[in-house]
Amino acid sequence: MQESGVGFESGFIEFWDQMLATIEVNGTRFPSDYRLSFADDGPDYSLERGKLELLTVKQFLSDRDDSSKIERQIAKSQASEMRTHGHPAVAQWLTTLCHQIAEQSEPDLLKINNS
Question: Does the global pTM surpass 0.85?
């Protein structure tokens, strides 16, 4: 699937929706990769195959009643990071979020960037 002109927030929301569908809670991954390309010709954003961030987020969302809301918060927060700090900040934000998920049930990054 390819979409054009989606926008930062909508693009990240679509990205997470598609990416989370490619992995099961037990870690089984389907052979699909997705990436976001940006009009400013900056680097694409994707999650490297084998990185634990996708599985960490999938497992975190799997037993939550508000998983759709949290998934949207993740996407919107990443979009905000991209807009404010650029590409490297998005990857760092996700890594920090995953560390927080491992340590607590309500990651602070989601509370701070709840928009």
Answer: no
